[in-house]
Specification:
Number of helices: 2
Low-confidence stretches: none
Order of helices and strands: HEEEEHEE
Strand content: 25-35%
Distance between the termini: 6 Å
Helix content: 10-25%
Largest sheet: 6 strands, mixed
Number of strands: 6
Oligomer: single chain
Structural class: alpha+beta
Shape: elongated
Radius of gyration: 17 Å
Mean pLDDT: 85
């Protein structure tokens, strides 16, 4: 058992890959992937999940456990990209339906939604224009775990 959240990260990526034809990337769209496009040339919906480092949680700590077995918060930013705002929003709603109140492992809490955002990136920086609708989530890993380490 460790505080790194790898089990939970893998579970989240696998769950997200059931959306948008599996076009889900960790941290960024790789250069070799190129933005996927629809027949009309617009960006096809895709998802980028960016996981933060786990953060020591103050709740449910057990003095008998070493630090790596203690509860830690795992944050994730899920950005939904598309060629128009409506598709970006629809993808975000589908992501919320999959992750909100879902526990990614037996030793984690269910995800909570911590906020969101939306933007249109200027076409001078990205052509064609990409619309983004994103949401921040958090879960606590190592909840109710008593070892071994």
């Amino acid at each position: 058992m460790a505080a790194d959240g790898d089990i939970e990260i893998d579970a989240v990526l696998a769950r997200l890959r059931t959306l948008v034809g599996g076009r889900v990337y960790e941290s960024a769209l790789p250069d070799e992937a190129n933005p996927p496009r629809l027949a009309d040339g617009k960006i096809a919906p895709y998802i980028v999940a960016d996981f933060g480092s786990t953060i020591r949680s103050a709740r449910e700590r057990n003095l008998a456990n070493p630090e790596k077995g203690q509860p830690h918060v795992l944050p994730v930013n899920v950005a939904c990209y598309a060629g128009n705002a409506n598709d970006a929003r629809k993808t975000r709603k589908a992501v919320i339906g999959l992750l909100l109140d879902w526990a990614p492992s037996p030793t984690s809490d269910a995800f909570e939604m911590k906020g969101g955002y939306g933007t249109r990136r200027p076409s001078t920086a990205n052509t064609p224009t990409r619309f983004i609708s994103g949401t921040f989530f958090e879960t606590t890993v190592n909840v109710g775990v008593d070892g071994p380490w």
